[in-house]
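The freezer alarm interrupted the setup, so I double-checked each line after restarting. Inputs confirmed:
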Amino acid sequence: MRAPRRWLTSEFERRGISRREFMGFCTTMAAALALPSAAAAQIARAVGRAEKPILIWLEFQDCAGNTESFLRASRPTAAEVVLDVLSLDYHETVMAAAGEQSRANRDRTVAERPGGYIAVVEGSIPTGANGAYCTIGGESAIDIARKVCGNAAATIALGTCATFGGLPAAAPNPTGALGVADAVPGVGNLINLSACPANVENLTALIVHYLTFKRWPPLDHYRRPLFAYGKSIHDNCERRAHYDAGQYVEAWGDAGHRAGYCLYKMGCKGPVTFQNCPNVRWNGGTNWPIGCGHPCIGCAEPDFWDRMTPFYQHLMGVPGFGAGSNIDTIGGLAVLGVGAAFAGHGVIQIMKRAADKAEPVVPNGPAKGDA
Amino acid sequence: MARVVVDPVTRIEGHLRIEAEVDAGVVRDAWSSSTMFRGIELILKGRDPRDAWAFTQRICGVCTTVHAVASIRAVENAIGAAPPPNARLLRNLIIGAQAVQDHVIHFYHLHALDWVDIVSALAADPAKTSSLAQSISDWPLSSPTYFAGIRDRVKGFVDRGQLGPFANAYWGHPAYRLPPEANLMAVAHYLEALDWQREVIKMHAVLGGKNPHLQSFLVGGMATPVDPDSQAALNAGTIAELQRLVAKARDFVTRVYIPDLVAVASFYKDWAGHGRGVGNYLAYGEYPNDDSAAPALFLPRGVIRGRDLAAVEPFDPAKVTEYVAHSWYQYQQGDGAALHPYQGETSPAYTGPTPPYDLLGLDSDTDKKYSWLKSPRYDGLPMEVGPLARMLVAYASGHARVKALVGAVLTRLGVGPEALFSTLGRVAARGIETQVLAEKMADWVDGLAANMAAGDLRIHDNSKWDPASWPAEAMGAGFHEAPRGALGHWVSIRNGAIDNYQCVVPSTWNAGPRDAKGQRGPYEEALIGTPVADLGRPVEILRTVHSFDPCMACGVHVVDGRRREVAHVRVR
Amino acid sequence: MSALVRVYVWEVPVRVTHWLIVLSIAVLSVTGFYIGYPFVTVSGPAGRHFVMGWTKVIHMWAAWVFLGAVFVRIIWMFTGNKYAHWDKFIPVHRSRLRGCWPTIKFYLFALRKPPGFVGHNPVAGATYVLVFGLYFVAIATGLVLRGASAEVESPLRWFASWAPLFGGLQIARWIHHALLWLLVGFAVHHVYSSVLMSTIEANGTIESIFSGYKFVPPEDLQYSGYRFIDRKGQVDE
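Predicted 3D structure, all chains:
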């Protein structure tokens, strides 16, 4: 039997969380969502009223990296999310129940609350070997995804594996791995939160957005929320001034590297990667990859394992010349080759003309037609 | 006789299925099956070896550093790169922080609910809980008011009617033996540890940009610049932050984790008699103390056979082999063969039931294949790896701090050293290791500070960065102690690209199926004899399996034979 | 040989767009190369320099000039004189189709003189189809990259949604960069061929792109490719 629903604010009071702290959380969320500060009050009302939304978190061909990311949530914390904000009815890595009982929790929610829960998918979905590359309780990942996502109010593909196929789908994609959009085509209200792993602050922001506005946020052409994927890493990077000035790290640990110069020449993919890493950063705003001196590897973009590699080169090599080949070296040599070929053509032409002058011939040459 | 199936085994990383044959309330036989496969080593072929760490890192997001470390070590070993001292210290700190944080998460969030009954905590008296807590530790969060707040919070959560992740578990099972007060204390620390892990792992964010999947690894060193005079590098402020986080880590481990472990264990001493396992232990050793090619290790390397602590053999990499007799792969020379990783080959060939299925259809002398894991063997023997193996090798090798702590814990529990070879022994060894590492990490921070003070700012061996500086053909191995045990990567490089890549992973050692001789893997062996009071709620099986800290995504991989056609394993 | 006739071949828009394209490609190539490989670096406070910044600003403006010139030239293919017409590029007429092989033979030294076409010869015209194709790809990938850094509400942002057509932004970037070398390679070929033609035919090919006038034998005006094509009176339309 379901206990009467309580106001979250009174819940907070009982827990000794003051209204001020709660408003602080709402202001942080408003900032994460790039909303004006007046929105904080609106969020507070929305979260305070909501019955905890039900979440079913599926793990397929995953590494649990997004789950770990979730455990690092700081605003709100994972404990707050699990106890107060959401009802996490199924999550293999977190839940107490196991085996048959755990699957029963999942299947009961799907059967009794169709359209009344949010599905989160972590990991890609293999289509090879009749689904045998990933089974849970004897059931294939694709069957579970169809069943759970097909009845969900919305599906959040969390992390690059679930959004775009990610690492398992990297060439030669041995298991026929796909992201949710491709594996379960037509799934309604699909929102992609790419990155490897996805930043948990964007997941919590997304859920609060939904609770507050009763709708999902505007998405980009890869179905990613604009509030988190609207700008490139490069355009928000703290090292951008060095990029524009012309100051680059040339070798690991050199003076420029120690001074925080731009990592562009070390292969940084920040200019072609969309995520709010520079703004939100990671682990409660502690740091982010470029902040610790390593280039962005483009983990939020489709097929980044194939397209953004080699990670330490600005551009990939030229097909047929090896992955490590340099497009400028090959391009420059090709132009030199073209120049040399024409120079040769010119020399022959000059010699021919010299011969013609020495022995004048009919100017029109060996005409086939009339002259 | 009854067949018990646990699938999914929850509170682990990845997808694990356990089938057990239970007779008269005791497990008579068991089969460990991994049900997910990705094929990452196949994906690595032909790529830049300097990129490999990022690929292998994604084998696992829980032990998110381990495959990156093993990978850069393997490539460095192949091309002859020599990382400078700062890189070694940064890596030691990252590896240490990973182990400490991961072990605590495992104890509280993955394993505790096998021993702790949350529902029972609702009946606890906060005042008695307070005196219990104060009797085992001077941790300040121990007042009656504090525990009353925790109890009310849990009660409020239960009253709200949405039990979420705590629904439908084995609450009230007779195997739960803690008094309500101990349960309430454990629940309080479950929540505290959730906050603590988020804070201490900021060490990874400081040193690696983010966690999970830190991003500061480089073949030949680390990407984190060191410069006391720069705000874009590790400087005195960072050192202070690291010292703060290391102290925070050590404080919680010493004053909460270890006292809790001893307190909980004292109620479950009979579990020192369950889950004995194969009795062979392998540790590669970890935490290099110097920068030579074969450095001295803080935790030693070695092999123990047949629970004989009197003799630690040196480890010989040539004795590592893998079987596929019961794994969903084929060998060209027949599935009975055992191949060294360098000669290893894999083509996935699923022969199990077509999903959906209920049972794998196994019996005690089955010749069926039933797992995506291979069966690694050392000198033909199954080996247990992990904290217990490391602590046993260190103990038997005379590691002073490990000996002292093991002795102290055994004395507190009133049991002899033979109690170590058990489910409870694994849990205790994990705690002891956490304590040893939490104490050691400060030394590495100090070492980093001393190098900075001496003006040594090197973080990378630039001489081997350009692939043009590599030999046309090179092979290398990288060994690492992951939180879950001995991890090895083997790489061969041809003309600057990966020709072959292989991982032999802790959870493959521990969770692998039977080999061609029918020898069970460590999980399977450890489950034999485990009591199961209620066939429908086999919490005892979870206890033993969880004591290994399964990490299935790590375990499943393709060992890709160098001469094998890629097309052969393309199933799509 | 009869006296040469002065013919107005290249109208003003053709010449202006030609030179704008030349200039913009030159600027785009130099700045583009720098953007791909910043070989000039500076020291001192970042606020005192804007090397990459200006390079990108120049690259962007040169790109708009290039885009405009290509656009005008395409309009002129439908509105200009017969030498500027689109069918001088895509060889749809029989006379131009038949002129292709002799022209190639000339380039391969099998003929002493090329067939007489007043404007572009058919092979050159077809080459420009390829070159315009490269222009389109360069413009499209450039717009994708520009759109990716546009504000969300900017109309330019729409071009970012083309990225999947090119396999994502990073591949779009690679294609864009590869085009630098292809167009530089074309420029080498183009300069050589015009010098060659100018010399062999002595018809003022080089001068014509400045003045607009070529000096051609009257037969070339009467019918094209007269030297090798049987059918008289077939004017190159």
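Quick read of the result. The mean pLDDT of chain C is 89.
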